Structure formats: C-alpha cells, structure tokens
Amino acid sequence: MSKRAIMFCFCAVACLMLISTACTPPPNDLMAAAENTVNQMDENQIDMYARAEYDLVTAELAKAKQHMDAEEYTEAKEAAEKTIELAKAAGQEAAVQRQLMKVDVDKKLPEFMERWSEISSSIEGGRGRAAQALAVEAKAFADSLTANLQELSGSEMWYELNAALDVASATADEFAEKAGG
Predict the structure, then answer these.
(1) Which one-letter DSSP state was computed for residue 25?
(2) pTM here?
(3) Contact between residue 105 and residue 165 where contact means Cβ atoms under 8 Å apart
(4) Contact, 102 vs 48, CB < 8 A?
(5) pLDDT (tens digit, 9 = 90+) per residue, 87-127?
(6) Are 156 and 105 in contact (CB under 8 A)?
(7) Rg of the chain (C-alpha set)
(8) 101 three-state secondary structure
C-alpha cells in the first residue's frame, strides 16, 4: 500500500469513529438504571455498612451525569455501567459488614444485659429517697431501652442497634456511678 492509501485509510477510520461518536444516542435507560440502583442502595442503608464503596458509586454516578450534560454519551454509558458494577460490589460488601455487625451485636447484647442486671440490682438495693428516685429513673430507662432494642432487633437494623448499645452502655455506667458502684 502506498502512503497515500494508508493515509486515506487512517482518515476514513478517524471519520467513522468521529461519526459513530457523534451519532451515539444518549444512554437514558442505562442512566435511569444507575440512578435507580443508587436509590435502592439508599433504601437498603448500604452507606451505613459500606461507606467507602457507597461513596465510589455516587462519585461514578456524578461522573456519568457530567458526561450526559456534556453530551459525551459514550463516556456517560461507560460511567453508568461502572456505577451499576460498583453498586453490586458495594451491596456485597454491605451484606458482609451487616453480618459482622450482627455478630458484634449478638455478643454485646448479652454482655450489656448482664451488666445492666447487676447495676439494676445495686440500684434496687439502695435506701432512701435518692435511691428510690434513681430506681424510678433506671426503670424508665430500662423500659425505653427494651422497647427500642426490640424494635431495632426486629427490623434487623444492626448498625443502629450497635450504636444504641454503645449509648446504653454509657448510660448504664452513669447509673452505676450514681448507685455507687
């Protein structure tokens, strides 16, 4: 082939690539699927269990939207596809982290209940008005906590349950201090 023929081929290929890029339709369905995937992630609290992965997904979706706005449809399509891929990985990581959080809660809850039983017994053994007032306050705390823990456990909201146990442990320590032990 002559240099002229090679140049002609390169020009033809370049023109075809330019035309195909310019004629690429917007990936509206794929963008909608990517946005729907992120909405489902929000509903399933993926951000609580896999924050870093969630942030990657939302960043990739933002990139896809930027490409759409710039009418760079090939890049938008690729970013939307990557958004969906990353979302799947984030969902898998969140499932693992949710299970690990459940294991942690399953360990912490009995430990807390045992500690609270000791504190409660100490409070109930107290005498005088201050001890009675503390016992009433402790009972109200225990009743409220029990309802909250049951609701969170029943809804399998392990992240929130873990956080509630941390707060409850701090409050129990305050009660123990007030009870003198």
Answers:
(1) P
(2) 0.71
(3) yes
(4) no
(5) 999 999 999 999 999 999 999 999 999 999 999 888 888 78
(6) no
(7) 29
(8) helix
